[in-house]
């Protein structure tokens, strides 16, 4: 692994004590006092009913104001009230103000309606906004423009009502009475809605419609459409938009490049992603944290951990601060590659630069270290954890201790976990059960299971599977059957592990017919619980031991028909049976050769290649015709092109 270098107070008024009673009777209210009253009036506690008999603007204020030669109550007073009530979300008072303005034939401006629309948006009431939009002209004689149209459309889209947004857009744009022409913002909103619900073709249609309405797409339009295309796997179309936008004089931003780089990285095309970064630099658009994080994530997905760490060093040298996701991605990638110790070094690098790992990173590292047998390193990491452990971290540590062969110590950690108020989950309990069975302490596993049931602790189908598997492995078939019946009685559905474990237990106990009955029951459970190669191998082995090779071959045909490929164990079972149970014995070459051809015929190239490897390892060379089929399948032009691209990516990236 490359070395990582450090390079206002609100006045509450009583309902029946208005400020005017404090004023001298000879004086009329001034504009400032009226505003003071207005702002105070909206500060009445929320427990007072909105439908108070007294209107939001008392009659006496307007009646007294008309006697003054120096002040006339104007529309601005109403506008101020609308702003205040909209900010507070007091829709009852807003309706009263609107009704009074309509009654007195006041002038209502579009700005006030937009203010109300925004209030409806904050309250998640898009239909109220649509209804008020429809009332603007006929009821309030206020002309609608694209501004109010966009305001309502944005509220609908932000509420996640994308189809409703389409309906509203079509209704307004196609209406000759409204005479509203959508602008770039209008199109940006509906393009976004189309992409959100996967209607990318409709988004492209809207995009192509823009110039016909004299709307020039902006960077946001292009970015939204590119992102929608990338999420649909249409990377080529998204990349072609980059050239188009530059030809149209619209300069891409860092967000534009990041969307395309992310799409290419997810596709695995790191070579073109790297070229886009070069293009980005040539256009004077510097990579940012998102660019680096995206590339690092892409490299980790492709298993190029060393290059990801190199890029992390470059990122730090460029004065960019990697975030938790960046570090977590690299650490997770290293752990998956079996390099958990290198992941510890990245964690150290992360902490030295002031970043704090989250529980996910710690649990990933703990699991990786225990899996690789680095028990001391895992224990030291547990002692040095800088965050508060959660259920996932405790579960990872308990599982690791059980892998180390110390279930008793793991149970003490479980008690510590419970005492701290952290609830264990199914994985925690199943790890402990598995740990006791691995150390041949089945009685303690059973006792623990009984404790779990008595305490009504969390159990699920996984815990049942572990218990059944452990009991069958320990030869306790009768107890396993009792647990099986208990599981069914409690409404839990057996999974593949449960079925396979019980089938193996029955076969080992000489009850092959019962095992086959259970297997047939398993086939009827639907696609979520179909037998795998392990299940089939158990039955192959039991049938061949009884010399019933024909039944085993029929089962093999069923296995191929179900889409399950044989493995090395399958081959060894049949080769042993053919050499020991037949007279005269066979070496199995004909059997394996025919199996390869059948797999190639079903387009199961991986499975066929695996059998070919077995044949070569056992010095059972395939026939010439079989080799010809293998070359034809393995050397198809598209497969060769994939191999060449893979090699090119290795060289360039």
From TrEMBL:
Residue stretches of each PPR repeat: 183-217, 218-252, 253-287, 288-322, 323-357, 358-388, 390-424, 425-455, 460-494, 495-529, 532-566
Keyword terms of this UniProt record: Repeat
Record has Repeat as a keyword: yes
Coiled coil: none
InterPro entries: PPR-containing_protein, PPR_rpt, TPR-like_helical_dom_sf
Family assignment from sequence similarity: Belongs to the PPR family. P subfamily.
The name this protein goes by in its record: Pentatricopeptide repeat-containing protein At4g20090
Species for this entry: Rhodamnia argentea
